[in-house]
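debug: dumping io for the single-chain case to check the tokenizer round-trip. Nothing else runs in this session.
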Amino acid sequence: MTTVNLFAKTLRIAAATAALAAITAPAVAQNDGFDIPEDFNFLSTENPNVRRATARVNGNIITGTDVDHRVALIVAANESPIPPEEMDRLRLQVLRNLIDETLQVQEAAALEMEVSAEEVDQAYERFAAERFDRGVEQMDEYLRSVGSSPRTLKRQIQGELAWDRLLRRNVAPFVNVSTEEVNELFDRLEASRGQYEYRIGEIFLSATPATRDAVLSNADQIVQQLRQGGSFVAYARQYSDASTRAVGGDLGWIQLAQLQNPQLETAARDMVPGQLAGPIEIPGGFSLLLLIDRRQIGMADPRDAVLSLKQISLDFAPGMPEAEAQQRADLFATTVTQMNGCGDVDAKAAAIGAQVVANDQIRARALPDALQAALLELNVGQATPPFGDLQEGVRVLMLCGRDDPQQVSGPDFDDLMSNLENERINRRAQRYLRDLRRDAVIEYN
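debug: decoded output
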């Protein structure tokens, strides 16, 4: 388990609903053990989800300012603007997360496992240095500049530290993984060498038959925002009900069989890196999948090759007539085809006024996908087709050397043991938090 993770490992807390009124001779449906009429009327038209953003959790108050500062922190971390219609849902989710954090801190205090202010300050300082390369005062200033505060980030750190401490004492010691289980998994992985494995991001939204339609609508809205450039990691951290929310939904490298669901396996198998799929209905709710990457098990990935490249570029002056630019571009393309390897580049480039930039340590995967594919098919001394346009200029990349990656050995016994243990700890953590919510006294204002 990680010691500090700034996004709390929490699940959704169900919103309370208004009482249901029976009508004359109602038809009754069985839903999760409840008798709910198929046709009913609400006694009140008040929407229980529309509240002022304050709550009292076992006596501890969560204020509107707490919610505002946490929302500002998320907005600052998001990779694209959050639409106004999304903000209400985000605020509701932030309130749920703050409730969970409060319950985690209270449970740690009740069991005499409090997280001290000194521990929080030390973790805050490490986070500022490692993630933002800032000192404490610079970090404080940055948080205030985005409408948040040091207090809200420290509160999140406190919740995560408390939860980690609880899991280490009350959950982890009771999780057992046998040597036989690990050896069996290792044998399966060895047998699958050469097959593909996938790095997948997930957002899981839990649903019951009664909440299915509302959750599906929520999932559709999340997909829409993601397709418009929203951060998958940010949405996973705020909305996912899976334990992977703490790491932005990242499942790590897995084989499709580990998804343990035929619909998810089929969807992931047909995806390409960067593609989003879902919502996919599975037992217990809906899943959104993002294929982050794909590779062959136990095999070297060509994209990890370290390339030595020369970029040859020819820029066009602003306002240059298109006919003249086209003529210069044609001369550039002809000259490149006449270059005899990288040793011949500088002189011939200078003859037509082109510039040359060399880089001897660039990984293929750091380049755009289209260039990766083109470069990995080249021999030393060959160049890509010209790219660019007649306004900005044209350029090519010439391959001057290539260091292919070494074969990978795959996870060892200790890695597999740790993965299995963490998976089981996460399952029990979900039940633990569910129990804390069930026993909590939560008052909304």
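debug: round-trip ok. The chain is about 45% helix and 20% strand.
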